[in-house]
Amino acid sequence: MAPVIAVSKLRVEREVVIIGSIDWSVEPGQHWVIIGANGSGKTSLLSALTGYLPLTGGEISVLGETYGRTDWRELRKRVGIVSSSIHQLVEGHQTPLDTIIGGRHAVIGMWGEVRPAERIEARKILRQIEADVISHRPWRVLSQGERQRVLIGRALMARPELLILDEPCAGLDPVAREHFLQFLERLARTRQAPTLVLVSHHVEEIIPSISHVLLLRNGGVLAAGRKSKVLTSSKLSEAFNAQVKLRRHRGRYSITVGASVGVVI
Fold first, then answer.
1. Which residues pair with 26 in a beta bridge?
2. Alpha carbon of 177 to those of 2, 148, 157, 167: distances in Å?
3. Helix 144-157 crosses helix 174-188 at what angle (to 10 degrees)?
């Protein structure tokens, strides 16, 4: 089977080098986390993958389609994206049901005539994301965690083969974050779950179903591969330029951080 994502010698320049040279491949059945410090290239890599940041060099293929040889607007319909940028586009009066139905056509909210089959599918997804009890509440009164679930439901409505989660826990308090991550783990374990690519700053957000890690530093790949090989204290220390001690407990991770490398306190 073709890779879900294949990146070869990717380079992006805008006055300065944003991404130096990235080689990366995601195979079917894998779930990845992209992790790195601020400015490491996480957001730029996502923007290039989804066609919003033109390449300076290299090649990107997503779901068997190569950038520059296909209509990326059509490809995006096969890729679910959950990002903070979508939050502000949802109108306050829209309900979760409206928002999810709109995902079938890659629009925000519900527009035009809704077929009965679409409504049935949306209600099924509401149950899948454990949000059926809030189906008729307006967006403006939903909590941040509830909104994240609804946006995942919107993405699932298009039956994506790839689901990209761009810092989905941003703005969540510790309890809400943990509830959301538990939900995400249940979703990842469902049959026919899409390939997940989670973008985060925090190892605490790496759920057990994540199988692989892409560790970025200064616009390049520091390490990539199976979680057990890449997620180590020494590699994290190099990625974040600090003394990092990684701990693992029941499939989840935490870190303690010492002084920044080269800084005397």
1. 5
2. 34, 10, 23, 11
3. 20
